[in-house]
Specification:
This protein is an alpha/beta fold. The protein contains 8 helices and 8 strands, in the order H-H-H-E-H-E-H-E-E-H-E-E-H-H-E-E. Strands 1, 2, 3, 4, 5, 6, 7 and 8 form an 8-stranded mixed beta sheet that branches.
Length: about 200
């Protein structure tokens, strides 16, 4: 995880500016998420600067938002004006929470940038209640347009850690193989194709 923390620590101050170009698609994503988290206890892993958590916190009962990057969490805390939202530095592979603690877990645009995404899914499954919901929107880079491929190339040169290049179908299959049943899925058009998914626990 060290290489990823270094990259994200270095770029924490630029992250919100980088994401601004996809503001419209993120607004659509917030609209999809809010009904799912309404009055629920929520965990977000890999929260970054807390963009999602801050935009949905009014709907939720409480949100714990975590990231492995101390600099990202520093940025997130700067704009946190809700008593229902708490930020902390944590490893998504080894969370400090008790088993079956949360109604909803969100992991957004993170599974494709870690070397062992299935390990993170196991930890998420541990802290999620049996009837809980996993929200896992992920950029599916295998479906990049030509401009997207060019953008990804330069991001790679800058040190962006991209480990999994799924198509939308491959990503949904990956979730199924790791014990999740997809109950809702839609591909949103962003800088890169964004596969929004809601999942519940299942037996493989």
């Amino acid at each position: 995880m060290r290489e990823h923390k270094n990259f994200w620590d270095r770029n924490a101050g630029l992250y919100d500016c980088f994401m601004r170009k996809d503001r419209a698609v993120y607004e659509k994503m917030y609209e999809l998420i809010r009904p799912v988290v309404k009055d629920k206890t929520v965990l977000e892993v890999a929260t970054g600067t807390g963009l999602i958590a801050k935009h949905i916190v009014k709907a939720a009962a409480h949100i714990e938002a975590t990231d492995a990057s101390p600099e990202m969490i520093t940025e997130a805390k700067r704009g946190n004006y809700s008593a229902k939202l708490r930020f902390s530095v944590q490893d998504m592979f080894s969370l400090t929470y008790a088993s079956k603690s949360f109604d909803v877990v969100i992991v957004s645009n993170a599974l494709h940038i870690v070397p062992q995404p299935e390990k993170s899914l196991r930890e998420i499954k541990r802290v999620l209640k049996d009837d809980g919901v996993l929200i896992a929107p992920t950029f599916t880079h295998a479906e990049n347009s030509f401009p997207g491929k060019v953008k990804a190339f330069f991001m790679n040169l800058a040190g962006f850690p991209l480990h999994s290049k799924w198509t939308s179908e491959e990503y949904l299959s990956f979730l199924h193989q790791n014990g999740w049943a997809v109950r809702n899925s839609v591909v949103l058009k962003a800088s890169f194709p964004l596969t929004y998914t809601e999942c519940v626990k299942s037996e493989v």
